[in-house]
Amino acid sequence: MSFVNYHTKEINCKIVYYGPGLGGKTTNIQYIYHKTAKDQKSDMITLNTENERTLFFDFLPLDLGSIRGFKTRFHLYTVPGQVFYEASRKLILRGVDGIIFVADSQIERMEANVESLIGLKKNLQEQNYDISKIPIVFQWNKRDLPNVAPMADMELKLNENAKPSFEAVASSGKGVFETLKMVTKLVLLNIKGGLE
Amino acid sequence: MNLDQNKLKERLIDFLSKNQTSPSSVLALVRKDGMIYVSTLSEKSSFYYSLGALAGGLWQAAVSLIKSSSLKGKNDLRLHFESTSEGFIILPLIKNEDELYLCCVYEDMLNPAKLRRQVIMLQQELQEQFNQEKSSPSKIKNQQKENSRIISKRSSNVTNSSLLFENITDKEMDDLFRHMEN
After folding, report:
1. Domains detected in chain B
2. Burial (Cβ within 10 Å: 0-12, 13-18, ≥19) of residue A1
3. Mutate which of B35, B51, B174 to test chain A, going by most A C-beta atoms within 10 A?
4. For chains A and B, what is the number of CB pairs under 8 angstroms?
5. pLDDT tens per residue, range A102-136
6. Is the pTM of this model over 0.90?
7. Which ipTM score applies to this complex?
């Protein structure tokens, strides 16, 4: 849940990168970390297994600057993608304001994408979120590989609500900031003007 | 940071000072989503936000871990991890029906057990304070007054909508991201 402090005019929001294992969630926020000026970021936390797979989460706090006098701060998290880390994914989704679903474009990973999306819907429902209403952006990652599914297939099988989507090659940075910028905009537009 | 948070911060700084902790020791109140509510650390510290994310994640992971055990239902839980001189302790608090975590990370302590005990007493003190604030009629009245002030200020400045931003232009988004993608 976003945290708006009207006294100090600060907005804090939580964005979660969700998707199947080895889809490129960590690569996304590593790229953002390396391309962000020092005074706009703090240290990135990665809780990994020995073979560099996400164990609990990656975390990157970003200060994006001000909009209409409100200072904005975004906390980026990734979930562990491997199937058996479902409990961790549920925890990380608590208080989420926006989601980037990072799908692996390779044909043989379509089933894993679908399974991960079903898990996301279920986990959101358990926390009384509706996937059709929460700010969400799809990223079709690894578009540089030879065996990718056509974009139309990705949209048809994964993006049933026609949410914004972007092609990406996270390892080279293609599509990374476009995706983040879109979800950031959706999150800001979704902030209720209630009291802190 | 509002007045309430400033007072809390002063109390946390005072606690560390009275307990003669090392300069690198930290005390913070963390929200359930991992965001810092109050911390003795400067916002400029690279550990400021990490502390919130880690403490929030640790507590919730620990609670999930014991949900199937016989500890279920106990409300005096605490989480600590330590060597003979350093470690951390996390304790839960409820403020206005929201869960907060009191987290103390300490180093170079001759008697960490004594410090932990003091942190538990601080937790009790803060919880009593939060409970009193919740039930105090004058506090409620002041809060209602402040809320009305903010509502009227907002409605005159912004719009009648329930959303903070009615629309955001592409230029405003580009400005937000202007220091990135270098």
Report:
1. 3-135 (3.30.450.30), 137-176 (no CATH)
2. middle
3. B35
4. 123
5. 999 999 999 999 999 999 999 999 999 999 999 99
6. no
7. 0.82
